[in-house]
Amino acid sequence: MTYIIKRDGRIERFDEEKLKSSIMAAAREAGLLDKRWVSAIIQMVAANAIAYARGQRSVKSQTLAEMILEELDNQGGQISNAWRAYSKPRP
C-alpha cells in the first residue's frame, strides 16, 4: 500500500480516483472536456502517476504533483496551467 505525505505532514492512503478527479477537474476548469484527447491525456498521466506511486511505500504529494505537471506540460499547457491553478492551496 502506498501513502501520500501531504505538505502539512499528514499521511493519507494513495487514492487513484482522487488523482484522476483532480486532473479531470482541471480539464473542466480549462474548458477542455469536450476535446477527445483530454480523456486520453488524463488516462495516460494518471496511469504513469499511479504506477510511480505504487512502486513507493510513501511519496510526497509535492513530488507526485511535480511529476504530473511535467507530464501535463509535455501534452500541452492548457491542462497543466489549469491544474496548477486548481491545486494551489486555498487561503
From TrEMBL:
Residues 2-91 form the ATP-cone domain. Keywords: ATP-binding, Nucleotide-binding. InterPro entries: ATP-cone_dom. One of its GO terms (molecular function) is ATP binding. This is Transcriptional regulator NrdR. It comes from Candidatus Methanofastidiosum methylothiophilum.
